Here is the input.
Amino acid sequence: MRQIQDYPPGKIILIAGIASIIFFVIWVGLITLGFLIFGFANFQSNFWAALEGLSSAATLATVLGGGFVVLAQLVESIDSRKTQIAAHNLEAYNSIFDKMMTDQNIAARRWIYINLPPDPQLGLESLGDEGRRHVKLVLNSFDQLGFLLQQDLISSDAIIEWVSPFVVKVWARLGPYVDYEAERRNEPDYYEAARFLADRCIEQRQSEGYATTITEVDHAL
Here is the structure.
């Protein structure tokens, strides 16, 4: 079937027609053989029954041939859909990679790892313009990716597996700030998609038995 689906439509229809004719000929041959075996004595009385059988055979052969064409088209449609989804996901992955792995985004995440105080209330009071730019850049990029995943606009498993190491790491610092701001502003949906992304990444890391906290090391890359 995989080979047949690559044929042009005209060739598939031709194959279906030939298959229908072969089936019809075999069926007629079986009926004729029956008459030869059992004799022609009852031919006149059984003529209309035989004619009805031939008509049924022709109908069945046509249905089988048409079903063959439909099946080939269905397989082709499914494969085409899979190819479109794979191409869409690849395009989405490339776009996300380009956004998440810019020097600016990497520097912003590093700044958060190193400089953001654990206490959000004290941290916000001392957060300067540079720090706010880093925090908003990372939050906005997480929020965008989280929204795409929430709406099932991209396949989630592969993306979560890829981004979860650095999302979980930065969220250990940034998560308390988002929760604090949501409560302070009385906005439960404050960066909701970013929190969705973080939750999914934490679940993935825990399911694999990995740590979900930051490990401080000297002279890190």
The chain has a mean pLDDT of 77. The chain has seven helices and no strands.
